[in-house]
Amino acid sequence: MKVTDHLRKASATLFSFEILPPLKGRDIRSIYEGIDPLMEFGPSFINVTYHREEVLYKDMGHGLLRKVRLRKRPGTVGICAMIKAKYSVDTVPHLICGGFSQEDTEDALIELNFLGIGNVLALRGDAIKNEGHFVPERDGHAHAVDLVRQIAALNKGHYLHEEETETAPTDLCIGAACYPEKHPEALNLDTDIAYLKQKVEAGAEYLVTQMFFDNAKYFAFVDRCRAEGITVPIIPGLKPLTNRKHIAFIPKTFHLDLPVAFSTELAKCRTDEEVKQVGIEWGVQQARELTARNVPCLHFYTMGRSEAVRAILKAVR
Known about the structure:
eight-stranded parallel β-barrel; TIM Barrel; 11 helices; alpha/beta
């Protein structure tokens, strides 16, 4: 079932979550260990992230360097297929611009459609760690809106090479990302929402927010989107803080603010366990308020760890 079908048929706020593919060398059991504890809450869909390759430069001697591409987390499509088969739950693979030509993208979309995976989250993706800014693949997409357009075109049966005659339209539900506190590269929130509207006009059928910790910013963001004519569902993305490293890492990496009340409690924490408990309590407050306001779905970024999300859901459900 498509994400939009789940949202349309729901009589109450749904629940979904996102996982990471395992590092190379680990098997599917590591995925199941993160999913099993959450299945009692009946997730409507599970997102699986995609991580582009990293680039290393190996010293070959005599002043020569060799460029090496490494992919640490393979298997997004395969993981989606396995999850769907084992749990009978819909999956949403992430598809990014980075590292993909348009032909690569078309091949990936054809494979998803063939496997009966009816959803895809279209993202630009991050720059390679050693590069200061995002660089698209040759003949690839530079922006998520272009990726959305390609998926929407394929849904209409428009393939890259029109001379192919024995083809059929795909049937993929297209999701996209949004940022209540604006994308880090956006000049301001107004321009960010203008670009977001372009993604929706290009074919994005629902939106999932970057994580946030201040519900007021989510509600204000939704209001601004609606005022600009963006009418598709906007799903809030949540992540409980679970260790002391998160306190500095998450605001800096994701360019977001922690509310004063939350940061005051976190400042009192001396151990990871104390941070986790404060993070769970804050997550419960967020989830309860969002549910009371009838948001379409609570989407949790689990990073493959279910304990904190499970505690939040047990308190809310």
